[in-house]
Specification:
membrane; about 40% helix; about 20% strand; alpha/beta; cobalt ion transmembrane transporter activity; Rossmann fold; six-stranded mixed beta sheet; cell membrane; ATPase-coupled transmembrane transporter activity; single chain; globular
């Protein structure tokens, strides 16, 4: 069988760079295959994808060596329009892809370019929208939809063109866990029923592995460094070698002393089985491991920074107005890291707006160190509470990186040596010091995220609210940044993580509060919250893979299994940080 995509000794160098971003790539992708291209940021994944869909060289010029063939034909002589008929692309940010005033118009756009007859066009629009479960939204504006719905509309637009290769560039980046699970299920259904060749570029390892994958292609520094089935690469422990996260349940088994060579079906927690002769021994070994779990430390009630009591808020007034936040109560102590979990639209960002003063509560009270802050201005609150938005482009106002970080200091009258010291320190902390004299436009989305955090960190707040702090970051940058956040918490700074990233909560939060429909439905240890299927389903989260594994194996206390993992992760990070500090002495 002839490959549908074939790279032969392929390299590409951007015009503005001296070295190739993709080099010596040899890869055959067969018709109907489902391929996951993985690797850290800057490894060349997106560049390789742009070569497939024609954005390189038509939008990004440079030097190409070697060959790229689609269905056995060299692509160098084909226009981007010809390629788009074969390769459908779904971008990380679906808003950047919409051109129609309604969902139906947007899905029809590519067919209009292809001069499809109107009589054929409408049935194809209906069929594509029905396939992704969005037919009832045909007349709605695409920008009014949720993140998961937007991704579905983008997918419908590609399906309507009948492209036989579907290329997904981080399709889960802006989706909550429930929407991400649905999106991966939808992609898998289309792959199976439509006979499509599917290429996925994605950071969320467990979400991708939740559905069957034929092969994983790992890239590092522009080269393909590993290719294999999920079972082969997971058993070999290959993913962490290239800055990718190993599934959490496999890490937990390692902490418990379980050897992977005696296990099968490693890619999903419910499917993992042990060879018969060691099965019972392994279960007892896990039970013994979790029996030594340390007790969780209680919240220090004597040193509360932020206290929220019975706060409610509605965006509209009147008798029938619906509360976006309803009778919410919780607190954050000095040096504490609290994860505020919930799906898109649960009320998390509205609550952060109430804390920062953007909105005024309809009822209830917000206190800072025991003082009611109802009369505090936004500026006064900003001296104590920093807020970093989910989308850095909504915060950045300056053209140069150094100017962006210095802006808040200048507004407060901090200049000269003190300003330079604090700007340099914030840039170093967030890994941006080497780029201090660059224009902001040269940064990636993840780097812009760190820049926006630097611009708040430089002001030295006591509490920092981070809205989806790790969105758009690869595992290495995620770990570096969150380890840094943990260090600040150890020094007394408090953090509220507004997130639906359950890995972040498991690895870095002291406690979790869960929101659904504007209410706090749970506030407990992270282990207890994310092991409770009732809570996770109500909040459109996803029960952690650790808990799912423990239940599948009949472990007596799934929550304690999760807590054992959390304790081992924190202990491991402390040891690594200690070794790092010792190496610098």
């Amino acid at each position: 069988m002839q490959p549908v995509i074939s790279f032969r000794n392929f390299s590409f160098r951007y015009k503005s760079q001296t070295r190739p971003t993709v080099k010596n790539v040899n890869l055959n992708i067969m018709p109907g295959e489902k391929i996951w291209i993985a690797g850290p940021s800057g490894s060349g994944k997106s560049t390789l994808a742009h070569c497939i869909n024609g954005l390189i060289p038509f939008s990004y010029s440079g030097e190409i060596t070697g060959e790229l063939l689609l269905n056995g034909q060299e692509v160098s002589g084909r226009s981007i329009f010809e390629r788009s008929r074969r390769v459908g692309t779904i971008l990380q940010n679906p808003d950047a892809q919409f051109v129609g005033q309604t969902v139906g118009e947007d899905v029809a756009f590519q067919m209009e370019n292809e001069e499809v007859a109107p009589g054929e066009m409408k049935p194809r629009v209906y069929s594509s929208l029905d396939l992704v479960g969005m037919l009832q939204y045909e007349e709605q504006g695409p920008h009014d939809l949720s993140g998961g719905q937007k991704q579905s509309v983008s997918l419908a637009g590609v399906l309507s063109t009948q492209a036989d290769i579907l290329l997904f560039d981080e399709p889960l980046a802006n989706l909550d866990p429930a929407s991400g699970t649905r999106a991966m299920g939808l992609i898998d259904e289309i792959h199976k029923t439509g006979g499509k060749t599917v290429i996925l570029i994605e950071h969320r390892v467990e979400d991708v592995l939740g559905q069957p994958i034929d092969r994983i292609v790992i890239m590092s520094e522009g080269e393909i460094v590993a290719i294999g089935t999920p079972e082969e690469l997971l058993r070999g422990g290959v993913l962490p070698n290239y800055g990718l996260r190993q599934p959490l349940y496999l890490n937990a088994l390692g902490y418990a002393g379980i050897k992977l060579e005696h296990l099968n079906n490693l890619s999903t927690p419910e499917a993992v089985t042990a060879e018969k002769e060691v099965s019972q021994d392994y279960k007892q070994q896990i039970e013994s491991w979790i029996s030594f779990v340390d007790q969780n430390r209680e919240q220090d009630k004597s040193n509360i920074l932020l206290d929220i009591r019975d706060v409610s808020f509605s965006y509209s007034s009147g008798k029938n107005a619906k509360d976006a936040v309803k009778e919410v109560s919780f607190s954050i102590g000095a040096g504490e890291r609290v994860a505020l979990l919930g799906s898109n639209g649960a009320g998390k960002s509205t609550l952060s707006g109430l804390i920062t003063g953007l909105f005024k509560p309809r009822s209830g009270e917000i206190s800072w160190r025991g003082e009611n802050i109802a009369d505090w201005s936004i500026r006064r609150r900003g001296e104590e509470i920093g807020y970093v938005m989910q989308n850095p482009n909504h915060m950045i106002t300056q053209h140069m990186i150094r100017d962006e970080v210095a802006l808040g200091l200048q507004a407060r009258g901090i200049v000269d040596q003190e300003k330079e010291r604090r700007v340099n320190e914030a840039l170093q902390i967030c890994g941006l010091y080497p780029y201090r004299n660059w224009p902001v436009s040269a940064l990636s989305f993840g780097q812009k995220k760190r820049l926006s955090i630097s611009s708040i960190l430089v002001l030295e707040p006591k509490l920092m609210i981070l809205d989806e702090p790790t969105a758009g970051q690869d595992y290495r940058h995620y770990t570096e940044f969150m380890d840094f956040i943990s260090g600040l918490a150890d020094q007394g700074m408090s953090f509220l993580f507004i997130t639906h990233d359950m890995h972040l909560a498991l690895e870095y939060a002291d406690r979790a509060a869960v929101m659904a429909n504007g209410e706090i439905i749970a506030a407990d240890t992270v282990a207890n919250v994310l092991s409770d299927r009732t809570i996770t389903e109500q909040a459109r989260l996803r029960e952690t893979s650790l808990s799912r594994f423990a239940k599948a194996w009949g472990i007596s206390s799934p929550a304690q299994f999760v807590q054992a993992f959390i304790n081992m992760e924190q202990r491991s990070k402390m040891l690594n940080m200690g070794e790092g500090e010792a190496s610098h002495e």
